[in-house]
Amino acid sequence: MAEQTRAPSESRALPNTVRFRTAAVIAVAVAAGIIVWLALRDTGSGNGKAVSAADLKSLATSVGHPIWWLGQVDGDTNELTRKSDGTIIVRYLPPGVSVDAQGQYWSVATYPFPGAFAAIKRALKAGGATQIKLAHGGLAEYLNSNPNNVHAAYPGYAYQVEVFAPGGQAVALVQQGKLTSFGGPKGGTLVPKPKAASPAGLRSLAGSLGHPIYWAGAKKGYTYELNRNPNGSLFVRYLPPGVRVGSKKTYLSVATYPFTDALAGIQRVAKQKGQRPIKLAGGGLAVYNPKIPNDVHLAFPGSNYQVEVYDPTGETRQVVASGRITEIR
Question: pLDDT tens-digit profile of 92-105?
Answer without folding.
Answer: 999 999 999 988 99
